Amino acid sequence: ENATVVATAQELKGYGFTVTLQLDCPDKPALHGLFAFYSHLDRIDVVVGQKTYAGNQIGLSGDTGNAKGMTTVAKGGHLHFEIRTVRRAGLGLNGRIDPLPFVTLTQ
Fold first, then answer.
1. Considering the entire predicted model, what is its pTM?
2. 3-state helix, strand, coil in the chain (%, to 5)
């Protein structure tokens, strides 16, 4: 059971609506104990403490925070995604690691 638990679901200055998931992946030890962070969401669909699973909707991509007005890819619209070693990372790259090894890219 690769569950994640919602660690935070809140609005943060600059990031807009955000969700942080605490990863618990016994079959993927490299992920265990890390945090996935999503921001600039239009809507948050989870609450702190809720368990989620791959494929569950946690929110809707949007343009909140400093992404306001970036409503299309052409205008810079994006989902901000990070893998963190801590629940709340500091400034710069502190507490953050390269997310690419943890995602599967498809075409």
1. 0.86
2. 10, 35, 55
